């Protein structure tokens, strides 16, 4: 089953977060992921608002989780730590 990687982000350091974004995309692609929404328009209906929302699709929940724990993604994530407040979840689709 495909899975969605859903991140809700508030960026606190644009420069450092830019370094994260530059490295994160190739890390996701290496694990079969691709972005389907990235910092696009949105409407917050419930819960805590984050001005940046990202959705990536992976071939499986396992592929998305492997990506998260990969050396490449963790190197990217080093730039996001301290430069953002993030919530991240991986959810399997019903397709």
TrEMBL record:
Q: Which residues form the signal peptide?
A: none
The family database entries (InterPro entries) matched by this protein are listed as:
Dimeric_a/b-barrel (IPR011008), DUF1330 (IPR010753)
**DUF1330 domain location:** 2-93
Q: Which Pfam families match?
A: DUF1330
Q: What is this protein called?
A: DUF1330 domain-containing protein
Q: Which organism is it from?
A: Roseovarius phycicola
